Amino acid sequence: MTRPSDPSPQWGDDARAAAILGMLRAVRAFGDAHDRMAGDLKHGMHMNASDVAALRLLIIREEQGRTVSPHEIARHLRISTASTTKLLDRLTESGHVRRVPHPQDRRARVVALTEAARVDFFRLYGPKLAAIREALAPFDDAELDAAMRVMNAVGSALDPGDVG
């Protein structure tokens, strides 16, 4: 019987199969490292995993210049709207987010990070980000572009419905 991590004939010759297996192992190792980092953030911020994931989504969307609705948080975290309301209540009470009017539709609300949330998040994530930058420094632009394409392809394979 073939295990899911075994090289498969459908992957081509032995060298190709070994390369794909190596990449699968690297993806698994990255996932494990990311899970540990998320755990460190969760403990360092004294939050549960969903709260940290919501803050991370808000930081990413803010960097993209996008607003985030409570519905988008629910969809991204795959939780109910009732759970999202409780999550946002916790994050509002802790001073990490604010519910503000949507910039184009004043009837709707969006969720915005507070400066305290940014400071708290990057106090813990900043050193990790610096370590990632240092780890990537030896690679040239072509290698980074190839790695980015691979990671994006793997991310799309794992979660084809994710909006980015």
TrEMBL record:
Highest taxon listed in the record's lineage: Bacteria
GO molecular function, one term: DNA-binding transcription factor activity
Pfam families in the cross-refs: MarR_2
GO biological process, one term: response to stress
Residue ranges annotated for the HTH marR-type domain, each copy included: 16-156
UniProt xrefs under InterPro entries: HTH_MarR-typ, MarR/SlyA-like, WH-like_DNA-bd_sf, WH_DNA-bd_sf
PANTHER family: HTH-TYPE TRANSCRIPTIONAL REPRESSOR YETL, TRANSCRIPTIONAL REGULATOR, MARR FAMILY
Protein name as annotated: MarR family transcriptional regulator
